Amino acid sequence: MKRGRALGLSLAVCATLACAACGGGTPEQEPASGPVTITVNGLPPATDEYNRAVFEENVKAFEARYPDYRIEAKEGFMDPQTFSAKIAGGQLEDVFYVYLTDAQNLIARRQVSDVSPYLADFPVTKDYKPGLMKVFSSDDQGDDKGKVYGLPDDNYSLGLLYNRALYKKAGLDPDKPPLTWEEVRENAKRLTALGDGVVGYGDYSKSNTGGWHFTAEIYSVGGDVAVKDATGAWKPAFNSDQGRQVLRQLKDMRWTDDTMGQRQLLEYDDLVKLMASHKLGQMIGSTGDLTNTVTRFKSTYDDFGMGPIPGGQGTLGGGSGYMFKAGLSPEQIKAGLAWLTFRKNPDRIDADNARAAAKGLPVGLPEPNVWTGDSERKQREATEKHATVPTKNFAPFAEALGRVPVKLEPPNAQQIYAVLDTAMQKVLTDENADVDALLANAEKQVGQILAAVK
């Protein structure tokens, strides 16, 4: 669930798509005799003047560099309301935007083209983070194992977002965020003691955001929401010691410590607003939440910090990338790879950051970052050179990125999150909530949801 561009996507691909899935490989076609034209999406709307201008300039520069390729750009990203119909009607763009959580579904249904034979011609693809490339690769044990069907574009992971100004007032070191949930709890007590309506720690419990955060929090202590059994079927896994630990700590902080405030049933904007208004000390969040705190609610980056998610045994992450429609010719695939590795290339980061900084946009946040090796070095140097935000405030989060495993959402995530919202709501609104009963009831419901996953 990425808050901002989208709240998530649940693909509803039915049997009518069987004909679209038939061409999962790359057909043998005659080489194109003229310029190769491909359709791509991701063109920003006209209302987003800056980013649209950047996109259109990239197209012009690309076509100048590759005169045999033409880009036909379409507005939009991935709309869950129209995606299935576009596949069934053959209207999906040749190179299309997709959330990380949906890539494996498309591969399994053979609705995308294998681009593996052509990656060697684009060496920068070797520098993508292996974990992200795995998302776009087949996990079949047969002949398709390891084949690649797309490239990453964007990523995020959840950590601890905290108010540095309130930390200072409470006598806490703003350069040393808590690394354990026990430390979060103790810090919340000191922050709440400031009075004036300050909430020490906040969490979600409505509109699927509660289940979203529960997932991140159970990952952080080594648990899972769903796992595959020996037959490959998905089963719920949160009715566990780790699941009980998450809910019991929240219940204790809400009712024993009284550090989570009286107002509950909170959803996305609620915590971000509280953080921006200096009424919230700590929350689980991403760099996207941080940006919204500043840009939408008129705060300043100087007042905030980010650290790794407490517990550090895992965190919830996500992002996006681009995949290649099934049935593309080799020439179309090469054109698509050329486009993707041109528009997002480490050698262009310096110029892109310089332009963004001149426009007054944030430069220097630790994510997104899809690179490793020399490409990551180039990104880091360009970021330090053009930073417009206080990077040291977010250094604890950045330094932990390689240590904390990033895990994706479970299948049918939004349906599962809706069920888990109830457990989060109960422990935050009912002092007598029975954690064991809540998890057992949720386990039954989620089991039914996962039984529908094919």
From TrEMBL:
Alphabetized, the UniProt keywords read: Signal
Matching entries from Pfam families are given as: SBP_bac_1
In Swiss-Prot or TrEMBL terms, this protein is called Extracellular solute-binding protein
Classification via PROSITE patterns: PROKAR_LIPOPROTEIN (PS51257)
Q: Which residues form the signal peptide?
A: 1-20
Task: Give positions of region: Disordered.
Answer: 365-387
Matching entries from InterPro entries are given as: Bact_solute-bd_prot1 (IPR050490), SBP (IPR006059)
> What ranges does the record list as Basic and acidic residues composition bias?
374-387
**The organism of origin for this protein:** Nonomuraea maheshkhaliensis
